[in-house]
Structures are given as structure tokens and as C-alpha cells.
From TrEMBL:
The N-terminal region contains the highly conserved SGGXDS motif, predicted to be a P-loop motif involved in ATP binding. Belongs to the tRNA(Ile)-lysidine synthase family. ATP binds at S26, G27, G28, Q29, D30, S31. This is tRNA(Ile)-lysidine synthase, chloroplastic. The gene is tilS. It comes from Platysiphonia delicata. It catalyses: cytidine(34) in tRNA(Ile2) + L-lysine + ATP = lysidine(34) in tRNA(Ile2) + AMP + diphosphate + H(+). It is found in: Plastid, Chloroplast.
Length: 328
């Protein structure tokens, strides 16, 4: 158990050995389990220069202040430093709350120069996130949102060392070591969609459709992950083959031989790589269809207030105000 966790942590910390590490915790069983496992890992391995904690209080319940005090007391008993942030503007929207939370955590990490940020997400959270994204109308890229680690900016890594473990595992750890847990009433507030997915939808599917729904979803997500990686590599390779050697432009004559979805993704990558701007699929499909009709003439679509993307039979390029980046 601890050996398996140590193997995952060694993989996460391999690129940033002997660096400061920040752990975001909520006070629930997953967070307290992560605190215990990290404490044991630190005592044995000594891989990190410093391990600190951060807690974000969303003020969803009247007991949130007491919960923050409990977290401070528990980490103080372990001689660990913790930073508490309180969000004054209360919101029950998971999306808005997540944006607030990650904004605070990332800014804190950058300000105090933490190279690694850890969260206590488990594979149970991964399954719940999949259903939430599916209901919202996600693509296959959106299904694989929670992975072991990813970069935040250029210098900070976000890691999820419990992502291969489920909530039953964290519950077992908490009981085995008699860890203090705080019962959070907000977990039973069904105005929060995740709670309804966790407590109603998934148990219903498990009982009436497939007992192995959890494993099947995880297998599907794993397949999506590898498919997405292949598609991304294909997009980058094709983009490098079709981009102009000197100007900010794409060779439309060669690009139009690709499948329309590949054309959309390559143009999206071209825009993001050139001007750090994302354009949705429907607008780009409309632009590509316009290009097919005009043939020898130019067509354009506005991508921002002062930038437009222009296309001819030969090139797709950008125009800033009235100055063409590529004079066709």
C-alpha cells in the first residue's frame, strides 16, 4: 500500500526532486488519507525540501469555519504549515467554485515558488467528472480531464497521487489509522450536481444496468486518453508539414485533403499557437465550407475584435486590423 503510493510519488517528484511541494486539502476522507500517506512518504524518502498545505473555504455551510479550525489543529499536530483562504462570495456552482479554487491555489504556488501542487482526487472523482462532462456535452478530449499529472504554466506541475485509488481505499486508510474525519454536510446538498451524480446516478447505474460500471468507464477513459494522444501527435505533425516557413499561414491547398475534423483541429491549433486564441468547431466548419464555395476569391471570419482569419484556395492566414500578415 505505502510502497505503491511511494512509487507514484517518485514518478511525480522525479522531475522536481528536492523542491517545495504544496498540497491542497478539503478536510474530507480523501484529503486526510493523502496527508497520512504523504507524511509517511516524507519520513521515509525525504524527496521534498518542504511540504506545505493549503485549504480553500467556500463557506457552503455554517460549520465551514470550524472545519478550517479542525484542519489547522490536525496539521499543527503533525508540525505542518497550512494556509487558509476564505472565499467571501459564496457560490453553489461547481464550475465557478472550481475556478475560484484553482485560481487561488495556482497563484499561491507561483507566489511562494512551489514546483509541485498535489490534490486528493481519486478514480471515483474521475468517474464522477466523466458523467458531469458527458451531461454538459463534452468531446472525447473533455472525458479525460483528470490524469496523474499535468503542467500548470511552464514551471509548476499538478499531481494527483490518489487517482488510481478509489474512495473505498481512502476510507480503509482512514479507519486503519484512526484518522480524524470531518463530516461535511455540503456533500449531501443536491443543489450541487456532483453530489447528485455521486449519490443517485452512479449507484442507480451500478444496481440496475451494470455492476462493473466503474471499471467499464475507467477502461473507456483509458482508451480515450490513448486515442487523444495519437490525434494530438497527428495534428502537430500535420501542422508542421503545412505551415508556412516564413509567415503565419497554413497551406490550404494541402490541408483541404485532410478529413474536415482534422482540418478544424489543425486550424484550432494554428490559431492557439499563433495568437493564443481558441475558436469553437462550428465557426471553423462554417469558415471551411465558405472556402469551398469561393474557390479563387478570399473569405474571412472575425476571430476577435481586431484579428480575422482569411482564406484563399492556396493559403489560410491572419490579418491584424487592415494589415495582412501574409500578402497573398
Amino acid at each position: 500500500m505505502h510502497k505503491y503510493f511511494s512509487t507514484i510519488m517518485e514518478y511525480i517528484t522525479n522531475q522536481y526532486s528536492n523542491e517545495s511541494l504544496l498540497i491542497a486539502i478539503s478536510g474530507g476522507q480523501d484529503s486526510i488519507c493523502l496527508v497520512k500517506l504523504m507524511n509517511n512518504f516524507d519520513l521515509k524518502e525525504k524527496k521534498c525540501k518542504q511540504i506545505d498545505y493549503i485549504h480553500i473555504d467556500h463557506q457552503w455551510t455554517k460549520e465551514s469555519k470550524k472545519q478550517a479550525e479542525y484542519i489547522i489543529s490536525y496539521l499543527k499536530s503533525l508540525r505542518k504549515k497550512v494556509s487558509i483562504y476564505q472565499i467571501k462570495k459564496t457560490s453553489l456552482s461547481e464550475k465557478i467554485s472550481r475556478l475560484y479554487r484553482y485560481h487561488i491555489i495556482i497563484n499561491h504556488a507561483i507566489r511562494y515558488k512551489y514546483r509541485i501542487v498535489l490534490t486528493a482526487h481519486t478514480k471515483t472523482d474521475k468517474i464522477e467528472t466523466f458523467f458531469l462532462n458527458l451531461i454538459r456535452g463534452t468531446t472525447t478530449e473533455g472525458t479525460t480531464a483528470l490524469n496523474l499529472c499535468r503542467m500548470i504554466g511552464h514551471k509548476t506541475m499538478l499531481g494527483r497521487p490518489l487517482i488510481y485509488m478509489d474512495r473505498q481505499f481512502t476510507k480503509f486508510i482512514c479507519r486503519k489509522y484512526f484518522l480524524p474525519l470531518w463530516s461535511d454536510n455540503s456533500n449531501y446538498n443536491y443543489s450541487i450536481k456532483r453530489n447528485r451524480v455521486r449519490n443517485e446516478l452512479i449507484p442507480y447505474l451500478r444496481k440496475y444496468y451494470n455492476k462493473k460500471i466503474d471499471n467499464n468507464v475507467l477502461n473507456f477513459l483509458n482508451n480515450c486518453k490513448y486515442n487523444n494522444e495519437y490525434i494530438k501527435q497527428k495534428i502537430i505533425k500535420t501542422y508542421l508539414q503545412h505551415k508556412h516557413d516564413k509567415y503565419v499561414a497554413l497551406n490550404h491547398k494541402c490541408l483541404k485533403k485532410q478529413h474536415i475534423i482534422m482540418q478544424v483541429k489543425i486550424i484550432q491549433f494554428f490559431l492557439y499557437h499563433s495568437i493564443n486564441l481558441f475558436i469553437n468547431k462550428s465557426r471553423l466548419i462554417s469558415f471551411i465550407n465558405q472556402l469551398k464555395k469561393v474557390k479563387d476569391k478570399k473569405c474571412f471570419t472575425l476571430v476577435s475584435n481586431n484579428i480575422s482569419i482569411l482564406g484563399t484556395n492556396q493559403w489560410i492566414y491572419l490579418r491584424y486590423h487592415n494589415i495582412s500578415i501574409l500578402n497573398n
